[in-house]
């Protein structure tokens, strides 16, 4: 039997654009939701026809701000995925921003079938929320979290650290508060300056400074130590969970499994082929109405490219890369995918462990992921 699929649905609209965000998000007033719903369902039908006999394990609504969707749209998408692939979906996640208006929709999302919500708190301080360009206050965020925990069986929260001027002591206190909320999963991201964002412009002008590399490494180590002690250790570079509460959907990406993506700018990996949808919402919508899908490019991936992508994704996991799964999904033996001299150097430095079963970063190597990858690829 083929491995199960993951399905990603992109809702590109936001109330405002955060200055650190390089995701495909757009501010558009009030879109024609009925028209968007029809287009998403058309793309799902197109993808189902390409994947006969496959099961869908997880469905993820990302964005943008998918909690701006009407619960009726979410329900229609969930029903379509279940019917088209003829399978009960195990994990259905929806990303949500914690404004009071969106929190009021939580009951509708739960009734539609959402069983996991990822709540973008991002900071537990009003001044920092304002600096991050977030459209909510802390009180709204905490109220939304309370509703989410009473509504959904599974809740994850997002926080950004390594913020301008943030000290180890301040993050330690904030992280302790976040862990006390009791959510099963936390996504904890170090702030990075992404090209094309407002923060990138400010950083280039010298008007925005984030902690230096040494402080960033200390923040990373503190995060790993505190979450592990609280029973939610890092299972991926930026994700922490109780045993069994890991995101099944994101594990599909990190283990290089097949997934389909629908909606503007969505990516997919299916049967050794990469697809990318039109990024601009209006162009995507026009393409779907004309062709039944919004795919802008389709590219066959040769084994070497698949191996490189799988290596970059798999080393993010604390468990590392399973050699047998890697070979099955890429067509390349793991030993043949890494540079032997680089592997020897990284092993001697204590940054990686490897054996017949697979390859993984050590705790010492985990903060240096990108540098280690440069040596191995």
Walk me through the structure.
With 377 residues, this protein is α/β, with parallel strands linked by helices. It has 2 domains: 5-254, Alpha-Beta Barrel (TIM Barrel), CATH 3.20.20; 321-376, Arc Repressor Mutant, subunit A, CATH 1.10.10. It is built from 16 helices and 15 strands. It has helices at 33-50, 71-84, 100-103, 106-112, 126-131, 138-151, 168-180, 198-204, 213-229, 248-254, 281-291, 303-314, 323-330, 334-337, 340-348, 369-376, and strands spanning 5-11, 56-63, 91-96, 116-122, 154-161, 185-190, 234-236, 239-241, 259-262, 267-270, 273-277, 295-300, 321-322, 352-355, 358-361. Strands 7-8-6-5-4-3-2-1-9 form a 9-stranded mixed β-sheet, sandwiched between helices. A 3-stranded antiparallel β-sheet has the order 10-11-12. The chain has a 3-stranded antiparallel β-sheet with strand order 13-15-14. Helix 2 runs parallel beside helix 4 (106-112). The longest helix is centred in the N-terminal third of the chain and has 18 residues, at 33-50.
- Low-confidence residue ranges: none
Name the strands of the widest sheet in spatial order.
7-8-6-5-4-3-2-1-9
Strand content: 15-25%
How many individual helices? 16
Compute the gyration radius: what is it?
21 Å
In short:
Helix content is 42%, strand content 20%. The chain has 377 residues and is of the alpha/beta class.
Which key features would you list for this structure?
20% strand, alpha/beta, three-stranded antiparallel beta sheet, Arc Repressor Mutant, subunit A, nine-stranded mixed beta sheet
């Amino acid at each position: 039997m083929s491995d199960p699929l993951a399905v990603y649905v992109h809702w590109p609209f936001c109330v405002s654009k955060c200055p650190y965000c390089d995701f495909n998000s757009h501010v558009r007033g009030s879109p024609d939701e009925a028209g968007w719903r029809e287009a998403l369902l058309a793309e799902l039908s197109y993808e189902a026809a390409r994947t006969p006999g496959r099961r869908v394990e997880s469905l993820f609504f990302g964005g943008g701000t998918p909690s701006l969707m009407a619960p009726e749209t979410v329900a229609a998408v969930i029903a379509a995925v279940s019917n088209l692939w003829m399978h009960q979906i195990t994990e259905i996640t929806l990303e949500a921003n914690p404004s009071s208006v969106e929190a009021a929709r939580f009951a509708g999302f739960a009734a539609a079938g959402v069983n996991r919500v990822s709540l973008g708190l991002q900071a537990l301080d009003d001044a920092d929320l304002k600096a991050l360009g977030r459209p909510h206050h802390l009180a709204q965020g905490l109220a939304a979290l309370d509703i989410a925990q009473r509504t959904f069986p599974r809740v994850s929260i997002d926080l950004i650290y390594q913020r301008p001027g943030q000290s180890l002591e301040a993050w330690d206190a904030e992280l302790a508060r976040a862990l006390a909320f009791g959510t099963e999963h936390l996504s904890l991201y170090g702030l990075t300056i992404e090209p094309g964002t407002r923060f990138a412009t400010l950083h280039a002008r010298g008007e925005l400074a984030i902690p230096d590399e040494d402080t960033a490494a200390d923040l990373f180590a503190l995060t790993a130590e505190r979450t592990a002690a609280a029973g939610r250790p890092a299972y991926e570079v930026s994700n922490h969970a109780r045993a069994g509460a890991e995101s099944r959907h994101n594990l599909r990406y990190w283990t290089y499994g097949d997934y389909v993506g629908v909606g503007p700018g969505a990516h997919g990996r299916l049967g050794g082929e990469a697809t990318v949808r039109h990024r601009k919402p209006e162009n995507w919508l026009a393409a779907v109405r004309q062709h039944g899908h919004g795919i802008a490019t389709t590219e066959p991936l040769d084994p070497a490219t698949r191996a490189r992508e799988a290596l970059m994704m798999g080393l993010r996991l604390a468990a590392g890369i399973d050699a047998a799964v890697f070979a099955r999904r890429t067509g390349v033996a793991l030993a043949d995918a890494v540079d032997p001299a680089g592997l020897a150097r990284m092993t001697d430095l204590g940054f990686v462990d490897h054996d017949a079963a697979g390859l993984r970063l050590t705790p010492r190597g985990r903060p240096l992921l990108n540098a280690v990858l440069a040596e191995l690829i």
